[in-house]
From TrEMBL, chain B:
It comes from the Eukaryota. This is Glutamyl-tRNA(Gln) amidotransferase subunit C, chloroplastic/mitochondrial. Its main location: mitochondrion. Subunit of the heterotrimeric GatCAB amidotransferase (AdT) complex, composed of A, B and C subunits. Its EC number is 6.3.5.-. It comes from Arachis hypogaea (Peanut). The gene is GATC.
Length: 541, 146
């Protein structure tokens, strides 16, 4: 097992990454010893931050400065962020929080928590480009509901992260602006489309982040970057302020370095929103009650849980190392008291073409709003159609153009029945097959991706090869179900191994159960600490 | 315990296998009843996709989508789009009789009251439009279509 060597960090001690430490340099570690000591897995950065802030062990301003220090040192290598605000604005927010804490005022559950936001989610006080030149410099006049709710609960938005343009892509190479690197191996991609948000959490540039997941864009980067990624049920989180890609599939999701952190962020942003007619009226249960210390677990804490391993995800075309990691995860579930069985989902492989038909079609409609007239960058012409044509040609990247054209084709008069309608029928079949499987199992598991992170440039010219990597994730979006990805192991690669994520799929609105089970799985996973080498020395715990 | 798998000898190998298995005709494992229907259907269907569908004409599609592509772009995109559309065609071979299409996953009835209201940030949005002349957004002339 190739791992970084970590020393344990008890919660009550001041974290070493505060500015008081003398070692301010980051070295790119060339070799790591292949031993593992086992420090306790991270419980919750958010909960331990809250404890430390309220007991005055350190201040929000100190916490912010130490994160910004790490961010400034790692960002030239990673390029996770498209926009970083003036640090003095952030410090003003942190100082204000510190004053309120000193005055004994109540502060929200996300007080002092540094949140990065994917750049296709609108933020009023920062540019929101969607990773596209057509919105370069665009500042929305409102916050997305998810951002608004996080800020109301005390979160500090630390910047906007890089993405594939408008969410279309699986590597973040499709950004119009820059390529983000994977903190585990700078020659590899962080995944996509929420690659910047995943890399930022992985490198501890921030505590948690928001991404969007339409076909796996939170879960696959979580797997590639060794962090937790949580896709909620469609309708659990308002899409208001999320730049629409495929409206029947889009969700806003959360990244964290632990299941508890992703869950706490999800709880903060969930719930009905009158500005999103597809947002659900279902109650949001109190997920937080499940994030208890491992010492309080019973000996078989998941006794009786029925886990279904999706047979179609561990066969041909999946890396041997990935399959091995998933089988080990299944054994871990059995140690926790679960019964693990293989389950087959009929028509599993139909989901991929169905997804791409639906997503391209819906995106061709959604992206028609970018016409250079009311907002966005305009290429002037003295005739309207030419203005549209030139502005869009100039503003959109190649992948976006191709998907719009494919969607236009699929929705052309006479072709609707052949493509879009058939894809919707396949959606019904896939929903039904998940419903049946989830009647016989409490959760389903699979890899989050068929391989670890690709090399930068590997998938650039072959659309079908890139789409193929989404096979593990798209069906969950078609069925609208919630899914949690957490790092469960490594394969060889990079300087300290490449992380592999386990995907856990739950019933509709079953995030509470997913988080309860995921937390227990994570807290009992021995010998695995997911801190990438680029920051191993800095974290020193 | 996470596994250290065998070293992947070159990503291209695993992807060739992978693309092959997932991108060829889908593995169809329906119930026995559907299998019989499917076999009957497949014996009459042709190998290629529906012959009434014209292949994508990228220039025409670009005009419909209001994107002015350069001739180089048309040449670059056409084979890739063709490849993906062909791949979409595998849905033609699936027996979908009597399957209802789903618009999306969940369908709660969440309509609000049919009462007009003004969005809080309307003024800011209008203010950001470069060529607004109350109450119109000014645009260049529209030529009549040929």
């Amino acid at each position: 097992m190739i791992l970084t060597l970590q020393t344990p960090r008890p919660l009550s001690r001041l974290p070493r990454f505060l500015p008081f430490s003398t070692n301010a340099s980051i070295t790119l570690n060339q070799s790591q010893p292949a031993t593992c000591t086992s420090p306790p897995p991270p419980h919750s950065q958010i909960l331990s931050t809250r404890h430390s802030l309220l007991s005055r062990q350190f201040s929000a301003a100190d916490l912010l400065r130490s994160h910004l220090n790490r961010l400034n040192l790692t960002e030239p290598h990673l390029r996770s962020f498209l926009h970083l605000p003036d640090p003095s604005d952030l410090l003003a927010q942190a100082d204000s929080l510190d004053r309120r804490i000193a005055a004994g005022e109540d502060v929200g559950p996300l007080a002092g928590v540094l949140v990065a936001v994917k750049d296709n989610i609108c933020t009023a006080d920062m540019p929101s480009t969607g990773g596209s030149r057509i919105l370069e410099g665009y500042r929305p006049p409102f916050d997305a509901t998810a951002v608004k709710r996080a800020k109301e609960l005390g979160a500090i938005v630390v910047g906007k992260t890089n993405l594939d343009e408008f969410g279309m892509g699986s590597t973040t190479e499709g950004s119009a602006f820059q390529v983000t690197a994977n903190p585990w191996d700078l020659s590899r991609v962080p995944g996509g489309s929420s690659g910047g948000s995943a890399a930022a959490v992985s490198a501890r540039q921030c505590v948690v982040s928001l991404g969007s997941d339409t076909g796996g864009s939170v879960r696959q980067p979580a797997s590639f970057c060794g962090v937790v990624g949580l896709k909620p049920t469609y309708g659990r989180v308002s899409r208001f302020g999320l730049m629409a890609y495929a409206s029947s599939l889009d969700t806003i999701g959360c990244f964290g370095s632990s299941v508890a952190d992703a869950g706490i962020l999800l709880h903060a942003i969930s719930g009905h929103d009158r500005f999103d007619a597809t947002s659900s009226n279902q109650d949001v249960p109190n997920f937080l009650s499940h994030f208890v210390s491992a010492s309080s677990f019973e000996s078989k804490p998941l006794k009786g849980l029925r886990v279904g391993l999706i047979r179609e995800t561990i066969g041909d075309g999946v890396d041997a190392g990935v399959i091995s990691a998933i089988h080990s995860a299944a054994s871990h579930f059995e140690e926790l008291g679960c019964s693990v069985n293989e389950v087959s989902l009929p028509s599993f492989s139909l989901g991929l073409p169905a997804y791409y038909i639906l997503a391209s079609s819906e995106s061709s409609s959604n992206l028609s709003r970018y016409d250079g007239i009311r907002y966005g960058n305009q290429v002037y012409a003295d005739e309207l159609d030419s203005l549209y044509g030139s502005s869009r040609a100039n503003g959109f990247g190649s992948e976006v153009k191709m998907r719009i054209l494919m969607g236009t084709y699929a929705l052309s008069a006479g072709y609707y029945d052949a493509y879009y309608k058939r894809a919707q029928q396949v959606r019904t079949i896939i929903r039904n097959s998940f419903t049946e499987a989830l009647n016989q199992n409490d959760i389903l598991i699979s890899p989050a991706a068929p391989s670890p992170a690709y090399k930068i440039g590997e998938k650039k010219n072959d659309p079908l090869a890139m789409y193929a990597g989404d096979i593990m994730t798209v069906n969950v979006n078609l069925a609208g179900l919630p899914a949690l990805v957490l790092p469960c192991g490594f394969v060889e690669g990079g300087t300290a191994g490449l992380p592999i994520g386990l995907q856990m799929i739950g019933a509709a609105f079953g995030e509470e159960e997913l988080l309860r089970v995921g937390h227990i799985f994570e807290q009992t996973l021995e010998n695995c600490r997911f801190v990438p080498p680029i920051i191993a020395e800095d974290i020193a715990s | 315990m996470g596994g250290v798998g065998a070293m992947v000898k070159g990503a291209s190998y695993s992807y060739a296998v992978f693309c092959g298995s997932f991108l060829r005709s889908p593995r169809l494992s329906f119930s026995i009843h559907n299998k019989k229907k499917l076999l009957k259907f497949r014996s009459f269907s042709s190998k290629s996709t529906c012959s009434s569908l014209q292949p994508p004409d990228v220039s025409r599609l670009a005009k419909t989508a209001q994107i002015s592509l350069t001739p180089d772009e048309v040449e670059e995109f056409a084979p890739k789009i063709q490849q993906v559309i062909d791949w979409f065609g595998q849905l033609q071979d699936v027996d979908l009789q009597s399957v209802e299409p789903s618009i999306r996953a969940e369908t709660e009835n969440n309509l609000r009251d049919n009462v007009p209201e003004t969005f809080d940030h309307r003024d800011a949005m209008i203010g950001a439009v470069p060529s607004y002349e109350e109450p119109y957004i000014k645009v260049p002339r529209v030529l009549s279509m040929d």
